[in-house]
Fold this sequence. Notes:
The strands form five sheets. Strands 5, 12, 13, 14, 15, 18, 19 and 20 form an eight-stranded antiparallel beta sheet that branches. Strands 1, 2, 7, 8, 9, 10 and 22 form a seven-stranded mixed beta sheet that branches. With 402 residues, the protein is α+β, with helices and mostly antiparallel strands. It has helices at 13-25, 65-70, 75-89, 105-113, 128-145, 189-199, 286-301, 310-314, 328-336, 386-400, and strands at 3-9, 31-34, 60-62, 97-98, 117-119, 123-125, 148-151, 156-162, 165-170, 173-182, 202-204, 207-217, 230-233, 236-238, 242-243, 246-251, 256-261, 271-281, 306-309, 348-354, 360-361, 374-376. 44% of the residues are buried. The protein is globular, with a radius of gyration of 21 Å.
Amino acid sequence: MNTFDVGVVGAGVAGAFACLKLAKDHKSLKVIAFDIGRPPAKRRRQTEGWLGCFPNSDGKLYSNDLNKVSAIVDNRKLKSAHQYFNSVLSNVGKFKIVKDKPVSISLDKKLKKLGYGIEYNDYTQTYPKDIHALSKYMASEIDGNKNIQFSFDNEIMQISKQKGMFVIQSQLGEYRCKKIVIAVGRSGWRWAKNLYKNFGIIDNNDSSRFGIRVELNEQYMKDFNKSSCTISKGNIELGPLCWNGTVIPEDHIDLAISSFRSNENRWKTDKVSFNLIGNINYPNQGCEQTDRLGQLTFVLTNERILKERVSTFLNKKSMISIMNEYSWLHDTVKDVSEFLPEILTKASFHVPTIIPMAPSINIGSNLETEVENMFVVGESAGIHGILSAACMGIIVADTVSK
Length: 402
């Protein structure tokens, strides 16, 4: 009864689209999908449960996210998966790609002179009504094909491999699967780290990505021409620029990190916000350092997310000024002020601002790990973005069917 062809761990964006493809195109496979969160149409936490963080996101599907997937999988498979995703999305509405606007010519020249690169971010905008309709449609399609069993509100305690089968021990019992797909996404980054460690497949755990989320009034950013661009230089990344919305807390189990919403009228403002993130090296402790900084900042500020003036931080009077880990930001903010001078006197910032990701592992072009028949998708594979997660879920469904 508890033996399956495929186990999908995580029913967020990647896991949900993997299940949809398995249900519609691979009906002979017996599949079980697990999630620590709630099933469709049930009240749930922000980043857990059916479709993961998508219902609480800003709803933007950035086209550039697929570039990271194309570095791993065959472009033909990715193109096919993207077409499949668009066909699914077409069941709940008509969507078009919003072409990103270039910054002003003068700003473009200044950025290049200062050594910054610019990446423009085309995107498809979805809204809560679209996401809820998509959730209902996908759940209905999967339920109608009967080969997928779901186990929601169920925490997986351990996964091991015995005699070619994956043994999944959970709160609700033990299950055996011939193949497994790890799709725990944004809420499961710590869990994924422990899984990779137990299987001995961590390739690199040196990188910690953290910083601040800057917020400025729109009037000070006219040269950016409402672009959603991302600006980078060395290990520093600024963006994507998010316009006319609100910085909100994204709740995880024991901390909240700064996030952004603009796709409902209640979030509308005249503010622009963006992550100012450093990719900082901590040998063999990157994930642990990210976790530590997120929790320490959360406790230190006694807030879900703290808002302060950037000038307070530069004058070393901020609550986070006592943390040496943020010292790199002093020179970085001054460097950014060369093309955005108002950041010194007019901007606010929010913390904790971290990019929660599991350590990197080696992944084959078929999304298989070094453990035979264990596959990873989405943020579990180190690739950020809702569109990327959906397409990887679609690709892996075809892969595990072989």
